[in-house]
Every structure is written in structure tokens, then in C-alpha cells.
Amino acid sequence: MQSTVIAPSILSADFARLGEEVDNVLAAGADWVHFDVMDNHYVPNLTIGPMVCQALRAHGVTAPIDVHLMVEPVDRIVPDFAQAGATLISFHPEASRHVHRTVQLIRSLGCQAGLVLNPATPVEALDWVLEDLDLVLLMSVNPGFGGQGFIPSALDKLRAVRAMIDRTGKPIRLEIDGGVKADNIAQIAAAGADTFVAGSAIFNAPRTREHYAGVVGQMKAAVAAVR
Ligand code: DX5
Ligand code: ZN
Predict the structure, then answer these.
(1) How far apart are CA 114 and CA 135, in angstroms?
(2) Is the pTM value of this prediction over 0.85?
(3) Which of 5, 12, 37, 203 to mutate to test the pocket of ligand 1 (most atoms within 8 A of CB)?
(4) Whole-angstrom Cα distance, residue 28 to residue 40?
(5) Closest Cα to atom 4 of ligand 1
(6) What's the CA dihedral at 193, 187, 119, 70 to 10 degrees?
(7) Which ligand is nearest to the CA of 199?
(8) How far is CA 148 from the centre of its chain?
(9) 155 — alpha (psi -120 to 50), left (phi > 0) or beta?
(10) How many angstroms separate the alpha carbon of residue 121 from the centre of ligand 2?
(11) Which atom of ligand 1 approaches the CA of 178 most closely?
(12) Nearby residues for ligand 2 (ion, Cβ within 5 Å)
């Protein structure tokens, strides 16, 4: 079984104080930094790119940086993120003309590779590529914005993908992204997730290390009770 990972989405952090926000959330017990990249093309929003990833590394962040690409095309920008210090790079199959090639590209640059399924993307998108992945990310909201509500059908999808991963016998992580809160994370974990993205649930005010530690601690305790 994979260890539990809490990956705060910095989409909901204070961008004017990003280094400090990331330091605080990691000191509060978070495991990874979830880094949402949006291009105003694949999704209707625009966020941050490789320069910001590089800046976090230069600031001293050593935790894994979990880059979630919501961009199209994908391949052009992958080397930039590998160079900028990404640990893991995930992308949406709809945004890449050659999904398997993109997976190979990510891994050839020394990063781990993840594939992201939107709420309406069937789990069959994982066929023929699952065994080459380090992580599957299931969206429990439509990508583009933080602060949306968890779509309940994601629970059945988690159970389905959990079974697919278990059949491979490989250490592939199952990550969930969107609407994850301290009060629904237990049922999400019970459905098979081991890696949990949470943006607004963690970074909504008050923006203090103590508040972050409280939420991350509640989340870890809730997950530990069911895994
Ligand atoms: C949405 C992003 C998420 C988002 C999660 O497109 O991929 O990572 O920031 O935010 P919350 O936890 O607020 O739903
Ligand atoms: Zn994300």
C-alpha cells in the first residue's frame, strides 16, 4: 500500500507571498506541493508556469512538486517543467495527440508521469498506458478553478481505478483533485485514493501555519482511520 500524501494546491494560496505560503503548508505537515498550470485554452483560466516552479526550488523548497498540466499542447512545455524542478508531471489525455509518447517524454526527462481523467473521461483512457504511469489523477471537479464542490460519481470511479491499479501489482498512486475537505476525505480514502489534493480547504483564511497544521492534521487523521 502507498503511503498517504496530502498535496495542497497552491492555486488557492496567496500568490503575493507564495514562498512563505509553501514553507508554511509544508511545515504544517503537508507532503507535496500541487502545482496547477492553466493556459486559458485547455481550461478557461490562466495561472503559473515553469518560472514559478523554478522560483520555488530556488527559494529552498525540497518537497516533491506535483505539476498538474491543464495545457494544450502538452509536449512543448514538459521539458521546461523538468528543467524547473518538477518531481511529477501529470497531463490530460484530451490535450495530447500521442498520450503514450508524452508519458515516455516525461519519464525520459527523469520525472514521474501521471495521467488525469476529467469527470466525464472514461476509465478506459487508462487502457494500454496504465502500467507505464506512476500516478493516476482523478478529477472530482471540472478543471479550471479552485473552490468547486466534489462530484459524487468520482467515488465509484475511484473504486474502479483502484481495482485496475491493484490488478497491475505496480506501485501506482491514485490521486484525487477537487472539492476535497476534512469532512469528506475519509470516504474518498475508503474508495481507494492514497494521494489527496486540497486547495481551498487548506488555504482559505486564516492564512497561518497553525491553521494549515489544523486542517492537514484533521485530514491525515481522517484518512488514517480508514486506510
Ligand atoms: C482545479 C485544480 C485543483 C484545484 C483544487 O482545476 O486542478 O487542484 O485547485 O481546489 P479545491 O481543493 O479548492 O477544489
Ligand atoms: Zn490540480
Answers:
(1) 4
(2) yes
(3) 12
(4) 32
(5) 146
(6) -50
(7) 1
(8) 15
(9) alpha
(10) 16
(11) 14
(12) 36, 68, 177
Give the cell for residue 88: 511529477
For 88-131, write each residue's pLDDT tens digit. Answer: 999 999 999 999 999 999 999 999 999 999 999 999 999 999 99
Tens of pLDDT, residues 64-91:
999 999 999 999 999 999 999 999 999 9
Catalytic residue among 31, 36, 66, 194: 36
Q: C-alpha 85: how far from its chain's center?
A: 16
The finding on whether 198 has its CB within 6 A of some atom of ligand 1 is yes
Of the residues 31, 39, 66, 177, which is catalytic?
Answer: 177
Q: At residue 88, what are phi and psi to the nearest 5 degrees?
A: -130, 140
Walk across the sheet containing 195-198 and list its strands.
5-8, 195-198, 173-177, 135-139, 112-117, 88-91, 65-70, 33-38
Ligand 1 centre and the CA of 175: distance in Å?
A: 12
